[in-house]
Write a structure and sequence with these properties.
It is a single chain. With 191 residues, the protein is α/β, with parallel strands linked by helices. 29% of the residues lie in helices and 14% in strands. The protein is built from 6 helices and 5 strands; from the N terminus they run E-H-E-H-E-H-E-H-E-H-H.
Length: 191
């Protein structure tokens, strides 16, 4: 019944390496770590992984049951059942692409059993603005003002290093919408 942490890796989808990094901390601070791999084979692009598959390939809104975000609560139930786990909440941590998954999970699953979420070094963000089209905002999604109120009751921590300020990072999205949030990860996190 130690606390549970779900870890979401970056764009390399190397969940085993992320898990291995967390094992020593998990042993030291007595928590369980589950590192989740959304492989390129089954989740071949950013839409399927870090954007949560909210929309399909042709731009139609998917039913919530198809969202990548919808895998987490059933996974937590499976862990609870298999371990006879008594606690009813979990924490999540994501790095880079995984951080994008995490902050969007908080937005699109505001009533989950989430305790804390940490989004570390995200390249860009979906902001809680219904006038900006998804994935940069919430326009055309199923999010309502009611959902927005619930979103802000969650504990989301944005983690960024002050030296993560390279505007020429090859993995940094450089669309006009992303650049409106800032020209590097540091500025975008502060935005």
């Amino acid at each position: 019944n130690a606390p549970i942490l779900f870890v979401f890796p970056g764009m390399n989808r190397n969940a085993d390496e992320y898990r291995n990094v967390w094992i020593e901390l998990a042993n030291q601070f007595h928590f369980m770590v589950f590192s989740l791999e959304f492989s390129n084979e089954y989740f071949p692009n950013s839409n399927a992984y870090q954007e949560g598959y909210i929309f399909n390939e042709v731009g139609d809104l998917n039913h919530e049951s198809k969202w990548t975000f919808s895998f987490i609560e059933p996974l937590f139930d499976e862990i609870k059942n298999s371990l006879n786990y008594q606690n009813n909440e979990y924490d999540i941590f994501g790095h880079s692409a995984g951080a994008q998954f995490v902050h969007r999970y908080v937005i699109f699953k505001p009533l989950s059993r989430l305790n804390r979420a940490i989004a570390a070094n995200s390249g860009w963000y979906t902001i809680p603005d219904t006038s900006i089209t998804f994935p940069y905002g919430l326009k055309n999604t199923s999010i309502s003002n009611y959902n927005l109120e619930n979103i802000f009751t969650n504990n989301l921590y944005i983690h960024i290093g002050s030296n993560d300020n390279n505007p020429n990072d090859p993995s940094l999205r450089k669309t006009p919408e992303a650049n409106a949030q800032g020209l590097n990860r540091y500025d975008r996190a502060n935005y």
